[in-house]
Amino acid sequence: MNKFTKVKDVQIAYIGGGSRGWAWGLMSDLATEVALSGKVKLYDINYDAAYQNELIGNRLKDRVDVVGQWDYEAVRTLEEALTGSDFVIISILPGSFDEMHSDVHLPEKYGVYQSVGDTVGPGGLVRALRTIPIFVDIAEHIKEYSPNAWVINYTNPMTLCTRALYTTFPEIKAIGCCHEVFGTQKLLASMLEVLQGIENVDRREIDINVLGINHFTWIDKASYKGTDLFPLYSQFVDKYHESGFEGSEEGHWMNNHFKSAERVKFDLFKRFGLIAAAGDRHLAEFMPNTWYLKNPEKVREWKFGLTPVKWRKKNKQELIEKSNRLASGVEPFELNPTGEEGVDMIKALLGLGELITNVNIPNKGQMNGVPLETVVETNAVISYDNVRPVLAGKLPDSINNLVIRHVHNQEVTLQAALGQDKDLALQAFIQDPLLSTLTPEEAAELFEEMLSNTREYLNGWELQEV
Amino acid sequence: MNKFTKVKDVQIAYIGGGSRGWAWGLMSDLATEVALSGKVKLYDINYDAAYQNELIGNRLKDRVDVVGQWDYEAVRTLEEALTGSDFVIISILPGSFDEMHSDVHLPEKYGVYQSVGDTVGPGGLVRALRTIPIFVDIAEHIKEYSPNAWVINYTNPMTLCTRALYTTFPEIKAIGCCHEVFGTQKLLASMLEVLQGIENVDRREIDINVLGINHFTWIDKASYKGTDLFPLYSQFVDKYHESGFEGSEEGHWMNNHFKSAERVKFDLFKRFGLIAAAGDRHLAEFMPNTWYLKNPEKVREWKFGLTPVKWRKKNKQELIEKSNRLASGVEPFELNPTGEEGVDMIKALLGLGELITNVNIPNKGQMNGVPLETVVETNAVISYDNVRPVLAGKLPDSINNLVIRHVHNQEVTLQAALGQDKDLALQAFIQDPLLSTLTPEEAAELFEEMLSNTREYLNGWELQEV
Amino acid sequence: MNKFTKVKDVQIAYIGGGSRGWAWGLMSDLATEVALSGKVKLYDINYDAAYQNELIGNRLKDRVDVVGQWDYEAVRTLEEALTGSDFVIISILPGSFDEMHSDVHLPEKYGVYQSVGDTVGPGGLVRALRTIPIFVDIAEHIKEYSPNAWVINYTNPMTLCTRALYTTFPEIKAIGCCHEVFGTQKLLASMLEVLQGIENVDRREIDINVLGINHFTWIDKASYKGTDLFPLYSQFVDKYHESGFEGSEEGHWMNNHFKSAERVKFDLFKRFGLIAAAGDRHLAEFMPNTWYLKNPEKVREWKFGLTPVKWRKKNKQELIEKSNRLASGVEPFELNPTGEEGVDMIKALLGLGELITNVNIPNKGQMNGVPLETVVETNAVISYDNVRPVLAGKLPDSINNLVIRHVHNQEVTLQAALGQDKDLALQAFIQDPLLSTLTPEEAAELFEEMLSNTREYLNGWELQEV
Amino acid sequence: MNKFTKVKDVQIAYIGGGSRGWAWGLMSDLATEVALSGKVKLYDINYDAAYQNELIGNRLKDRVDVVGQWDYEAVRTLEEALTGSDFVIISILPGSFDEMHSDVHLPEKYGVYQSVGDTVGPGGLVRALRTIPIFVDIAEHIKEYSPNAWVINYTNPMTLCTRALYTTFPEIKAIGCCHEVFGTQKLLASMLEVLQGIENVDRREIDINVLGINHFTWIDKASYKGTDLFPLYSQFVDKYHESGFEGSEEGHWMNNHFKSAERVKFDLFKRFGLIAAAGDRHLAEFMPNTWYLKNPEKVREWKFGLTPVKWRKKNKQELIEKSNRLASGVEPFELNPTGEEGVDMIKALLGLGELITNVNIPNKGQMNGVPLETVVETNAVISYDNVRPVLAGKLPDSINNLVIRHVHNQEVTLQAALGQDKDLALQAFIQDPLLSTLTPEEAAELFEEMLSNTREYLNGWELQEV
């Protein structure tokens, strides 16, 4: 790849995207980026969805407000998508929302509530069991058809998806990207406005050191132009710990399934001293269920939302209708840069300027106190054909203890998925903090039923008859 | 030290022993060991208790059945005890049984039961907070008065006592000794009798690889004269999992606070695949309280005992009376070798033959998957002035996850004790699995009350008014 | 420190500088930097030299071409210099050029030639022995008087000076800075001009991964705007391996003691496959003396210079005369930005923009294959109050073997200097590759004489009578 | 394996042995061991040699002085030998003495002398290049035909042979055995006799801690029944440093190619403070050639022998003649226990008693300061189906520096052999200390010629035309 030629001829394989949201975001980001052009091959197990995205994407070419020229082409095989690609973007839904319904809501029978259910907890673990074989398959295809491509993953559970890629093809050049940390940077920017009257701070100006695992990352150093933000954050937490901080952006935790009033984050700061850097809905799922998810009333007190899967199903329906309108041209495509960094990363990897940001990659020593090779989230320097982690140091032992039980549990989950080993999977399941109030027998019973509901994706497993 | 002279002139400092049992055991073991003779200096914060032991010990000298000649001398200061000593044995009760009563029984208010309460769990943690400063003080004295002596610790919480010694004086030559693993070797010997009709197997003939932390050690390899014992143990567990295995030795779990029917051990084997190598009363305390200690009825089903502190108080009274009789000569001292290995270790360290056994020492790489320098229990080769750990390997990830949460929690407890930092101590406390059903607020409330009950030993701490 | 106030009030302690060159460079760089102002306290064991620098520095204030306003003040004690300082810059000459004369030229008696003699080799090692105590003393003062200041060291031997600072005061915030890598970046820029006709490439545009130890660093990845530079460098080496590459800059290896024709660098690339990133004069000293420094004729063939100490003495005289002229105002001070990065680092550490560059700091895992805590040179991200190394990976084993023998030898040298242990120092000395043709007896004899010549700086050593 | 059955039915595959000496030693050791019996399958690329050994071995069965009953059978393929075997013993000559003649004597053209030439140095390195592919092949066969067998290797270069086995088949259960350390234990026993009048000390009573790599191991702790031997050894060295110590055993360095007067060992102790634990002929080859192997006169002064390959050729001829006599029964087979530990190890691995001894196995943390996975020599505990290294600690940095340059060089040699990469092999070759007085050009020339002489064993290499 050479900037003088290749930036005009970048080839991207987009895996997934049938659920529309993420694919449209990429289209928007590519359309508004002047430095790149090329081709996007769209692959989805639902070819029609990919084809509709092809139509939508290609409609952009003639528009005067579009500065990045891209061809979109839906293809019918992974092989076709990958062959010749410089970049591979993965953003899939593992299984359908029916499986996710079981992941999220079945545990409620046992009094176990989940706000998202896609990372850890009973839902995240079972989701991982059905997702890992898919990522093994993708990694094998990448090894064969595009071994030198850079792979950007957006799928959850992020840690285990990325880990499965590296386990299958250790030389893969893959990074897991997630915007949750950006949200915390924005919160710190809001804090500067509220407490100091400094307006319009860009989240990128908030310099942070990040360490942890995806959706359970922590900030142990934060500054803004030479000012240490920790004393300020301490004040901020004191002020808003009880009431919560709603912020100025649109959306409110009571009527938006993705918002919160940051009370979980503030409580973790008061108890442990560092800034937890993910949305409260995610953070809560990493703690014992007596803490923030004890029951729906408690969740309301903590002022964050439980995202019901029926909302996701409804939302999907609306997106399909919108997709029809966009594909036919009835509705014009709105260019809304997403704030995601995928396109920035592509530019940096092509040699168009260095980027320092948080990524999910195997631990090569960047995070002490966590086993090597497990996937961690820390800052990295991204430059031409290169992602080099920045040494992040070590979490304090007490916070590290919260984190590594998930790290080890994820390792066991990975081994169980690769070996289709139900006993081993159960050993991880019963150690999940969200199940800390169940007896092992109850946990085993729940696990059996959850597995059964996702059996379609568990080829080779020996499951009980239902 | 040279065997030709020094074995006649060994000097031992015995710290503690006022509670009698352990001191008398040592007297018995020394009296029946022909290869050693010398002097034991007895130091206890209760001088009278030490003095009574002096009288009892010195009465042994004239007896014809005593082959090891030792002088006993009670001394009034640690300095006196340590000066000139080749070995230091530590076996103290940190605080009194009143504090232990709070450790063990106060959590019952919150539905948290403990079978021992001296290692982990709320009781073990608070006990550690008051014990660590005592061990810091002992280590400082050893550094000054007997830096080259070998130190053998029997006090619980074993891991943190040993860790505190090394943290204070890194060059210390200390080992923590515990007989719990021996009990599991004996169980395997009983198994050979029951399943194979092989009688009188000595526990030392059961070759094992041990790894874990004190009272939560695991065996991943066991053999007897060239026979792998794992397939046999699997059969054994299948047979006795439900009923429990009572064994042939005196004592039964229903009327002996120290016995069990091994059901916890068997259950852990069925769930995790390795042999847990400690008494069930200890093992149960390392797991979430929904597992084996949910309530007294559950404990009875699992067939092990909760040791009430009032029993300890009563027992102590009986020992004091016995002590009076022994000191005055009314009752003769019975020579009963204890089966402990302290004297064997002393011999090995003096160059009288190599010994391979399990010890608690800092992790220098002998146990993978656990941070370096934390105290672990694995096999070691003990020889002249030398204790070298044998590489034990790594626990499977799922078991390791059970173990390391305690390892990290103990590290935090250590830091909290050294820094007299209540907030930090609470961070460890609320992560203990025995408290997994409490809310953080309940845990904090319990902690505050427990600390208050042990405040006499928490100099320098800022505690709430009661 | 806060950018809104502190950039106007930066306080720098400058230790050394009596030899003028480096101090004037800093004055130039500060005078041309608009974002900073404040005060520089000048401390040198030669107070008069510091005072002359005070005069020279303060003369700049009124000049219209000076945009950075600084007060200069010579002080008489280290304590005075350090108290209140935000930054400490160390640039001293350890001992005088008389000692250096012995370091560099005495080994010639044994056929051992050195091109610089300040890093490794017999000269570098003996220089280290007299420098380490000075840095121990500086570190102790920093610990007492300015523990939070950032320390920037320019003194050689860089690795051991920096290591001595951290050994003495482990919490010190010190970085060792060196421009040798910049020179190699410039060479790559020249290569782009010569082979591709691309002009005016700034060295900062050459993106590199650096790893090794100071003056023996290697580049294993280099790119320019999305072009991998390794294939090009291979062509470049093929073309200029025999003739050498003189470059276009002023100075030629035949009449400039600091220039070379890069033949050593090219030869190392042909033999080992990576780009050695320091001047040839330095590189040659790390290899066995049969390679590039066998004798003066060989050195001429390799087209680099041996820098005689008499040149340094003469040069010093000229600088003193120039200093007199500058101080009196007879000669105007010329503003020549140095290309050093000290001031850029100060800006980054104050929060004025992130900087990624190569620094010498303890290995916290950034360079695999080299012991932790030894000082290595790799890239780091410098931001507000923070220097975080970027993971550099590992050198290929064969190159690593060239490097680590020096790493270990430097560790032994450090221990010897701290313990004033001549036997131990000799164990390092006889392992230096530049002495590989001597017998141990010859090496010992040479060592004794060299030590004797630097005895004034070896307080507490037991040296042979001369 | 169970002792009650298997000790009667042990199956051993013996690979090599055509050169007779080692095979006869094994026969002797097996014949005099009462606890074992079974079958030995003999495989050699020279079938006739193996067959002659079959005849010789089977002649032992009827003898009254033979207590261990073994059947010997020569087989024609590795597959046959390995199938069903419990143990595999490897003792081969890689190539012939013609290749070894080049290894040892060709470097003499450049003034480089070697006393053995089979471990490191130019000879050892080239020998490794031709041996590694053979061991790769053996490991592949073991993986296929006897993956659970224990493999005992006696072939040199020990480190790289063992490393090649593990690299090819990581689950292999292989140990490298060497008697050189035993010789040093015997020297210490002699010392006890000479200095203290203690007679008949068995080498096994000398308790030592061993660490290093094969033929370059070091003892940092030695005791005899509670007496530290270091002060005594220091006296011993002072007494015999100049004259050498001849010992009382038969053989003298002047007329025995395998003896020495231990002057190299004593000199290393004086210079570095630890006891080097191998024969002087081996030790000398690890140091720069200016130290002990400068020229034949120097070697004579150091009182050890250079073993000429023509002696080996002559000796081989004598052994063949002896073999004829033994096979035909003309000469009776003498039972001479070898003092090797192979049979003791077999017993321990079968569960017949624990053994602690020095072995060559991959570094799993038993030796700090040396990369993990490289093969090191330290103590291990050998028990039923189990070899567990004992933590040996770390060599002092200065000695470690002598050792690890060979460790890294051997890693490069391994990679070169596996990749048939001449350039890489040369990178190792030119770093060998025995070549420290050559220029790189001379070294390259020598290397090319040596490779050419061993080309028959370098399939796939691109070698220069001769």
Automatic annotation (TrEMBL), chains A, B, C, D:
> Recorded GO terms, molecular function?
hydrolase activity, hydrolyzing O-glycosyl compounds; metal ion binding; oxidoreductase activity, acting on the CH-OH group of donors, NAD or NADP as acceptor
User: Could you say which cofactors this protein requires?
Assistant: NAD(+); Mn(2+)
Which residues participate in substrate binding?
Answer: 156
Query: What does the record's cofactor remark say about binding?
Result: Binds 1 NAD(+) per subunit.
| Residue intervals of the Glycosyl hydrolase family 4 C-terminal domain | 210-434
UniProt record similarity statement: Belongs to the glycosyl hydrolase 4 family.
Q: What is this protein called?
A: Alpha-glucosidase/alpha-galactosidase
